Backbone:
């Protein structure tokens, strides 16, 4: 992804979609009407999270990278919790009696967990790099002597 993306707004939109799905599955909506849309949203959210992770992996010099990774991690965690909750949901919009849908959701859940591991690793690596670049007070004093 070579273009600049509006990371904060994308995260916000994904979080709102996750909340909408959570709210939707707590209601007793007709599966014939809503199940396909919910599944499309699961695929869409997973796809966007994957694109955003790619962007973060390709751009290790972003100004707010650590904060962006934390936000991405939180969104990925909420997405994964949503999938898990939906797989174990017992209401009208349950997928328990639809094995092929359950299998697809389990694949999405596995992909989400893999992305979460990558994000956590990026966060850890960024912290290590940042701590290696910290300037001690002695170094600052020495650098400011010239002024």
Residues:
């Amino acid at each position: 992804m070579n273009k600049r993306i509006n990371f904060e707004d994308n995260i916000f939109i994904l979080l709102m979609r996750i909340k909408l799905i959570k709210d939707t599955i707590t209601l007793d909506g007709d599966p014939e009407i809503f199940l396909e849309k919910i599944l499309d949203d699961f695929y869409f959210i997973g796809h966007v999270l994957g694109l955003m992770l790619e962007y973060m992996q390709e751009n290790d010099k972003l100004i707010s990278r650590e904060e962006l990774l934390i936000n991405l991690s939180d969104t990925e965690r909420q997405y994964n919790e949503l999938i898990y909750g939906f797989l174990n949901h017992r209401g009208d919009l349950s997928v328990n009696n639809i094995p092929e849908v359950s299998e697809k959701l389990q694949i999405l859940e596995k992909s989400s967990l893999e992305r979460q591991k990558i994000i956590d690793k990026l966060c850890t690596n960024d912290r290590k790099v940042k701590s290696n670049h910290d300037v001690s007070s002695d170094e600052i004093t020495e650098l400011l002597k010239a002024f």
